[in-house]
């Protein structure tokens, strides 16, 4: 992995030793923390990008080539994790870190990462058609959950994973047009919602699931060019937003959705190579930025949006 900008995502100061007097006592400043803002995994450009806000200000870039970053997630200690198409899950402990820890797994397409209340790591492995859980990046107490019995066919791996406040596990079964909720890694009877289609209660190639701070479920319905919000897994409170296009209130094959603590909604509009923000599910306060390319404020194939 190559770092294109070393001042990327930094807040705070490096730990330093200051000798004082004959005793040589040491004063330590705080380890730098990642900046609050927007983090984008751009699979096509093989980079991750940071922006401080929806104007695209203070852009920072990390080059992961030849790996292709698919997702990013912060754990409870503020460390950044990257999942790649190249079969790696890497933990970046601080913004200035050069050497990263890598989970002892390989060969999968690690498309989404999540953490439970105990800071255990969950990885959605698209190619392996499974969810992997471990205590930490070392792989301690690693277990796997095979999703093949719950999807439409043996090639339908999970494309997203999320956890709610009760540590229940939500998985997107893409080809089946379903969201699955497991009570635990050993649950053999998950709650299922959705089927293939374009009307209420149906999805076409959903690509992401996110649980808001209020417990509501947000889903990217990729081939219907919209996002959907549910109150719960019964489908109560269904509301959808978006139609195909490249204008205001429009998406083209969106890939990812998340929310911030104030309830603002952020959508990675992958097919339009842009990031969109809206205040609610009717499009109030719509803001967008981005265009296709590898330059400043541009995206090639943006896969994942993360708010920190």
Q: What's the CATH architecture?
A: 6 Propeller
Number of helices: 0
Oligomer: single chain
- Provide the number of structural domains: 1
Q: Determine the CATH superfamily.
A: TolB, C-terminal domain
Please summarize the sheet with the most strands: 4 strands, antiparallel
Principal-axis shape: globular
Number of strands: 32
Which CATH C-level class is it? Mainly Beta
**Strands ordered across the widest β-sheet:** 5-4-3-32
How many whole angstroms does the radius of gyration measure?
A: 20 Å
- Mean pLDDT across the residues is 90
Percent of sequence in beta strands:
35-45%
Unreliable stretches covering 5 or more consecutive residues: 1-28
Helical residue percent band = under 10%
Annotated CATH topology = Neuraminidase
The end-to-end span amounts to 22 Å
Which class of secondary structure composition applies to the elements? mainly beta
Architecture overview:
The protein is mainly β and 308 residues long. The chain has one domain: TolB, C-terminal domain (Neuraminidase, 6 Propeller). Helices cover 0% and strands 42% of the residues. The strands form ten sheets. Strands 5-4-3-32 form a four-stranded antiparallel β-sheet, with no helix packed on it. Strands 6-7-8-9 form a four-stranded antiparallel β-sheet, with no helix packed on it. It has a four-stranded antiparallel β-sheet with strand order 10-11-12-13, with no helix packed on it. Strand 3 and strand 4 form a beta hairpin. The two termini are 22 Å apart.
TL;DR of this structure?
0% of the residues lie in helices and 42% in strands. The protein has 308 residues and is mainly β.
């Amino acid at each position: 992995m190559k770092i294109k900008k070393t001042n990327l995502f930094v807040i705070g100061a490096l730990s330093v030793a200051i000798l004082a007097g004959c005793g040589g006592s040491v004063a330590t400043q705080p380890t730098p923390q990642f900046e609050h803002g927007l983090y984008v995994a751009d699979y096509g450009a093989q980079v991750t990008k940071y922006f401080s806000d929806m104007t695209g200000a203070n852009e920072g870039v990390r080059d992961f080539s030849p790996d292709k970053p698919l997702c990013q997630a912060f754990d409870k200690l503020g460390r950044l994790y990257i999942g790649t198409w190249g079969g790696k899950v890497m933990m970046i402990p601080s913004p200035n870190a050069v050497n990263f820890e890598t989970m002892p797994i390989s060969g999968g397409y690690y498309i989404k990462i999540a953490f439970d209340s105990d800071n255990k790591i969950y990885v959605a492995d698209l190619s392996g058609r499974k969810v992997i859980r471990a205590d930490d990046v070392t792989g301690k107490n690693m277990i796997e959950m095979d999703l093949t019995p719950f999807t439409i066919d043996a090639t339908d791996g999970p494309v997203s994973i999320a956890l709610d406040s009760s540590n229940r596990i939500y998985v997107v079964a893409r080809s089946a047009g379903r969201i699955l909720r497991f009570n635990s890694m050993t649950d053999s009877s998950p709650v299922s919602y959705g089927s293939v289609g374009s009307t209420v209660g149906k999805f076409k190639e959903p690509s992401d699931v996110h649980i808001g701070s209020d417990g509501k479920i947000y889903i990217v319905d990729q081939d219907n060019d919209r996002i959907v919000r549910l109150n719960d897994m019964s489908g109560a409170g269904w509301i959808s937003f978006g139609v195909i296009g490249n204008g205001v209130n429009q998406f083209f094959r969106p890939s990812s959705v998340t929310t911030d603590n104030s309830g603002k909604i952020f959508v990675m509009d992958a097919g339009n190579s842009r990031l969109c923000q809206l205040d609610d599910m009717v499009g109030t306060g719509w803001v967008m930025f981005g265009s296709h390319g590898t330059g400043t404020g541009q995206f090639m194939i943006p896969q994942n949006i993360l708010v920190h």
